[in-house]
Amino acid sequence: MNIYRIRGGEALKGEVDISGAKNAALPILAATILTDETITLENVPKVNDTVIMVETLEKLGSSVEYLDDNTLRINTSAIDKYEVKNPNIKKIRASYYFAGALLGRYRQAVVPLPGGCNIGGRGLDMHEKGFEALGASVKITASDIVVDGTEAELSGTRIYMDKVSVGATINIMLAAVLTPGKTIIEGAAKEPHVVDVANFINGIGGHISGAGTDRIRITGVQSLRGGTYAVIPDQIEAGTFMMAAAITHGDITVKNVIPTHLESISSKLKEIGCKIQESDDWVRVIGPAGRLKRTQVKTLPYPGFPTDMQPQISVALGLADGISTVVESIFDNRFMYVNELKKMGCNITVDESTTAYIDGVEYYQGANMTSPDLRAGAALVLAALAAKGGSDIDGIEYIERGYENFDKKLRQLGADIQKMEV
Ligand code: EPZ
User: Fold this and answer.
1) 169 and 287 inside one domain
2) 77 CA to centre of ligand 1 in angstroms
3) Considering only CA atoms, which of 285, 215, 205, 280 is closest in space to residue 244?
4) Most buried pick, 190, 233, 362, 404, via CB within 10 A?
5) Which residue owns the Cα nearest ligand 1 atom 15?
6) Is residue 152 scored above 90 in pLDDT?
C-alpha cells in the first residue's frame, strides 16, 4: 500500500503547470467511439481514471497509442463489441459515457453500473430519461446499464432535465450527435468540461450549439471525421493548488489555466484574505501573512462554487478567524473527510449531511488519516501541509485517480511530501 508521508509547516511557493482536465478527458476519450477516423488527443492527464478509460477502449477493439504521457492516438473503427468488460471500469463513475457513445455510434451498449467516489446517491435517471427520449430502451439491471436503440430509429427531440447533471448532459450529447434530427437539452449543465466535449465534437464535424448555456442544440450528422484536439486545463486541480497557497500562507502561480473557469474560486480566496493576480493563462494566489478570514460557501453548478472544491475550502476555513459555514448542495455525502480532519484539531461539525459549521483554529496538528475520496483526499493533504508535525495519509489511490503527479508538483513548490510503500 502506498501512503503520503507529509511534514507540514512550509509555505508553498513557486509556479505549477496544471494538467488537462480529467472530467473533460474522460468523456472525450469515450467520444472517440463516434468516429471511424483517427483522433489525436493532447493534454490528457495520465491519472488512474483516464488509464482505465483507455484500457476499456482497447478491450472494445480500439487501437490506442501513447505518443507521450499526455498525447494519445486513437482509432476506434475496429470496435466489434458493444458490451464493456473491464473489471477496473467499476472503479470509475465515467464508465457511463460508454453507454452514450456506444448508443450514438452502434445503437446498443451494455455497460457495468458506475462506481467512483462514494459521495452520495448518484442516480442515473437523467441519463435514462435522455436515452429513452431519443428512442432507445434502457434497462438498469443489478450489474449493468443496458441500452438498446436497434428496435426503432433514434430521432432528435427536446429533453427537459429535472436536475442539472454534468454526466447526463454530456451523455445525451454523445448519444445525439449521430442521431437524425434536432435534439435540444433544456436545463443543461454549463461546466467547462461540457463545453470542451462539444468543442471536440464540433472540431471533427459535429453540430452542437449553446454548450455553456442551459440550452444545448444538437443537429444530428451522418458521420464525424478525425482530428487533433487538446483538452482544457483542469479547473479543480488549479483550484486545489490555489487553495494550497491560501492554507500554507504561500505564493503560488498556477500556469496553463483558463482564469475565467477559476473565477468563483478566486473570488472566495479574495474574500478570505488572499491577493489574486491574473493574466491570460495564469493566476497567482498570495496567501495572507496572518490568519485567513471567515466566510460562507455554498456549492452550486457552474458558474457557482464547485462541489469538487468543497473539501479544500473547508480545510482553509478550518484555519480562519471566526465561524464559517459551508453548504453542500450537489451531493449528499461529501463530508466524509470531517472525522479525519477532526483528528488534526479542526473544529468542524456537520448538520444533516449538508452544512458544515467550522470554528477556525490557529493551527492543525499532524495526524494519521485515510483519504475517503478523491477531492477529500487532496484536501487532507493540504491540511497536513499546513499542520504542525507529521502526517501519514493512506487511501492515496483515490487522490491519484484525479491528480497527475500530485506529490511531485507539491515538492516543486517546497512541500515536504514523500510517497512511500508501507
Ligand atoms: C461529475 O459527476 C463529475 N464526475 C464529478 O467530479 C463532479 O463532482 C460532478 O460532475 C458535479 O460537478 C465526472 O465528470 C466523471 P452530476 P456526475 O450528474 O456527472 C444527481 C470529481 O471529484 N443526479 O452533475 O456524476 C447526482 O446524484 C468528481 O472529479 C441524479 O440524481 O455528477 C448529484 O446529486 C466527483 N440523476 C447531482 O445530480 C442523474 O441521472 C449532480 O450530479 C444524474 C445526476
Assistant:
1) no
2) 30
3) 285
4) 233
5) 94
6) no
pLDDT of residue 114: 84
Residue 12, pLDDT above cutoff 70: yes
Out of 11, 30, 117, 393, the active site residue is 117
Which of 230, 253, 287 is the endpoint of a domain? 230
The answer to whether residues 237 and 226 belong to one domain is: no
Nearest-atom number in ligand 1 for the CA of 236 is 29
**Whether residue 100 sits in one domain with residue 207:** yes
Would you state the cell numbers that stand for residue 52, as one nine-digit string? 482505465
Q: Is the CB of 371 under 6 A from ligand 1?
A: no
Q: Is 401 in the pocket of ligand 1 (CB under 6 A)?
A: no
| Total residues found in the chain within this entry | 422
The mean pLDDT value for 49-56 works out to: 96
Regarding whether 358 and 274 lie in a shared domain, the answer is: yes
What residues form DSSP beta bridges with 110?
Answer: 83, 146
Residue 158: strand, helix, or coil: strand
**Ligand 1 pocket residue status of 162, Cβ below 6 Å:** no
70 lines ligand 1 (CB under 6 A): no
Expressed as residue numbers, the domain containing 72 is: 22-230
290-302 b/e (C-beta count within 10 Å ≥ 16 → b)? ebbbbbebebebb
- Tell me, in angstroms, the distance from the centre of ligand 1 to residue 167's CA: 6
Last residue of a domain, one of 174, 196, 230: 230
Q: How confident is the model at residue 314 (pLDDT cuts 50, 70, 90)?
A: very high
Whether residues 226 and 237 share a domain: the answer is no
Q: Are residues 336 and 242 located together in one domain of the fold?
A: yes
Please tell me the number of Cα atoms within 13 Å of 371 on its side-chain side: 30
In this structure, the answer to whether residues 246 and 392 fall within a common structural domain is yes
pLDDT at 333: 84
* pLDDT tens digits for range 254-295: 999 999 999 999 999 999 999 999 999 999 999 999 999 999
Residue with CA closest to ligand 1 atom 36: 123
| Residue 117 appears among annotated catalytic residues | yes
Residues 26 and 151 in one domain: yes
Residue 281's pLDDT is 97
Indicate if ligand 1 lies below 6 Å from the C-beta of 307.
yes
Average pLDDT score over residue span 405-416: 98
Map grid coordinates 497567482 to a residue. 284
Per-chain mean pLDDT for the chain: 96
Query: 375: Cβ below 6 Å to ligand 1?
Result: yes
CB 358 within 8 A of CB 297: no
Q: How far is the CA of 301 from the centre of ligand 1 (A)?
A: 10
Number of domains in the chain: 2
| Phi, then psi, of 285 in degrees rounded to 5 | -120, 125
